[in-house]
Specification:
five-stranded antiparallel sheet; Neuraminidase; four-stranded antiparallel sheet; single chain; 3 helices; 2 domains; 587 residues; elongated; Lipocalin
């Protein structure tokens, strides 16, 4: 029940007003060339390849079609051992909750795309009695019921008879168990003693309450219940903790980290076997963590976030493979935080709210295992272009930036030919090759997207009225095309040659809002990589959820030092020797 301040949050929106005049001048040429042309760009292409090969970051690095994450190459290096678990795609949803919340109960509802959110701590520090249904597709939050007893730091469990809110409290731990069923909530019973700061996991219709604090001491007893009224002891933790991350896997309950009575995070991995009534310490986390979130996904236990020793929040995602008995780095959360409500639904772990250095947050994050994002334990695990490099046209900094899949700067120096020199491209419209050899052309004056043969014959043309400034249309499948709307707020649009909009991404506020997106490409991992030019960042977006699953650059904060960009204009994802991984047919 003791509030613990989180650590520093990664840079958020921070517009720089003094740059607006400069940017206004740059925006006058809306339709500028972003990628290398078919014929006139050969000189630049040679320079780009030389740029890539001119040092230790050249060929011989990881990647390539035969060595991509999906092939499981990381496991092969370990001989006969089973492959390591997949890395995760971790993303920040483009929408936010109406209000910040932390330390709430979040449970699956049994309906895809829906979560139950109950209780929690508000931004003012009050315990909430609200029960809401969260739509994970839109962020819509609908009232369901009112808890008879406001609470935060409670354990939660979804059982066939309804959703249980177990203990928690306000100014002191409470013993009440509350039931949410249908559109109502009621006091169901009581725990044997008051308990807060605990967690719960469900195995075979039985909920197991683990860890916690009774107001004076830590409670080591693991309790089991099938109805929220009757509780039986199962075992006792050898290392009692509060705020543990708890999940069920393989018929056992995993207890990862937690905190001591004094609030010091611990690094233990404890496993409860309900069948034998035994508990054992089976391993150690790479770092001590309290208030983290855990879930079993695809047979692997994943641990995300949490507070570290010293009070800083963690953004790390770890994979614990019970069969291998090891914990490996699997990715990174977009926002470091602790004390969030979390639940699994649709094969994803949803992390709702939580606490950062500024208190409860309204942001929602999700993660899911995906070998296209790498293998746990490998450098670059969690990157949407795992195994490759990213070449960014850092336009306002007058040169390219070459990044590894770990985000490390491999090269940064001026490269673009000056006006009047060989290879210079000046105000050309977009032209991208199609699979059949034709060109996909943007006709800027009429904002029309056209397909033309190499000889210039028009095959089809379309104008998308909903797009103000189309930029760099590309073919991504049979009669499927992708284009960026280079305006503010910007958008990404998938369409067909009849002009039908098949998919659109265009938040007008929140972390997902784009400003002047100049180029979007679909990566082999399925993520969409975007140069969000006027936000001074590159972002990758999961088209299934709209979540931001990767970012380089601080939003609205230009710069030249590592971690910063200044109006990135275009990019290429590069495999060995400079091959273009996002254009396997035409690249």
């Amino acid at each position: 029940m003791v509030q613990v301040a989180g650590g520093a949050r990664p840079g958020g929106r921070a517009p720089v007003r003094e740059l607006e005049a400069t940017r206004a001048r740059r925006r006058r040429a809306v339709y500028r060339r972003r990628r290398i042309g078919l014929a006139t760009g050969l000189g630049i292409l040679a320079l780009v390849v030389a740029f890539i090969l001119s040092g230790p970051s050249g060929p011989g690095a990881r990647g390539g079609p035969a060595g991509r994450a999906a092939s499981g190459r990381a496991g092969a290096a370990r001989g006969s051992r089973a492959p390591a678990p997949p890395a995760v795609e971790a993303g920040l949803l483009p929408w936010q909750l109406p209000n910040p919340v932390s330390r709430e109960v979040v449970l699956p509802t049994g309906r895809p795309g829906s979560l139950l959110v109950a209780g929690g701590l508000t931004a003012s520090g009050a315990s909430s009695n609200g029960v809401f249904r969260l739509d994970t597709s839109t962020g819509a939050l609908g009232a369901v019921a009112t808890l008879p007893a406001p609470t935060h730091d409670a354990a939660g469990a979804a059982l066939p008879g309804g959703s249980l809110v177990l203990g928690g409290g306000t100014s002191a731990p409470a013993a009440e168990t509350q039931l949410v069923a249908g559109n109502g909530a009621s006091v169901l019973g009581a725990l044997p003693v008051a308990r807060a700061d605990s967690s719960a996991a469900v195995l075979g219709g039985t909920a197991y309450v683990v860890g916690g604090y009774d107001g004076t001491a830590l409670d080591a007893e693991v309790l089991a219940t099938t109805d929220g009224r009757r509780f039986r002891p199962v075992a006792a933790l050898p290392i009692p903790v509060r705020y543990p991350a708890v999940t069920a896997a393989g018929g056992r309950v995993y207890v990862l980290g937690g905190e001591t009575l004094g609030g010091e995070p611990v690094d233990t991995i404890q496993v409860v076997d309900p069948a034998s009534h035994r508990v054992a310490v089976v391993g150690r986390l790479p770092l001590a963590l309290g208030g983290a979130s855990a879930a079993e996904l695809g047979g692997t236990v994943y641990l995300a976030g949490g507070v570290r020793r010293g009070g800083a929040d963690s953004a790390a995602v770890f994979a614990f493979d019970p069969a291998r008995d090891e914990t490996l780095r699997a990715g990174t959360l977009p926002v470091a935080l602790a004390y969030a409500g979390a639940a699994t639904s649709g094969g994803r772990l949803w992390i709702v709210g939580g606490e950062t250095a500024s208190g409860p947050t309204a942001e929602v994050q999700m993660l899911r295992p995906d070998r296209a994002f790498g293998t746990a334990g490998e450098p670059g695990a969690g990157s949407p272009y795992f195994g490759d490099k990213l070449l960014v046209a850092d336009r306002a900094n007058d040169g390219p930036l070459l990044l590894s899949d770990t985000g490390r700067v491999l090269r940064r120096r001026g490269l673009a030919p000056k006006a009047g020199t060989a290879g210079h491209l000046d105000h050309l419209d977009n032209a991208h090759p199609r699979k059949n050899g034709d060109l996909l052309v943007l006709e800027s004056n009429g904002r029309r997207i056209e397909e033309r043969t190499r000889g210039g014959r028009l095959v089809w043309t379309v104008r998308l009225p909903s797009i103000s400034h189309p930029s760099d249309p590309q073919e991504i499948g049979p009669d499927r095309y992708l284009v960026a709307d280079d305006t503010s707020p910007g958008a990404l649009v998938e369409f067909n040659r009849a002009g039908r909009i098949l998919w659109r991404y265009g938040p007008s506020s929140g972390p997902g809002e784009l400003s002047g997106p100049s180029l979007v490409e679909q990566l082999p991992s399925g993520a969409l990589l975007v140069s969000d030019e006027h936000h001074d960042r590159m972002v990758a977006i999961d088209p299934a959820t709209g979540a931001l699953v990767w970012q380089y650059g601080l939003t609205g904060v230009p710069g030249t030092t590592p971690g910063h960009l200044y109006e990135p204009d275009g990019f290429e994802v590069l495999g060995p020797g400079g091959t273009t991984q996002s254009h396997p047919v035409t690249g």
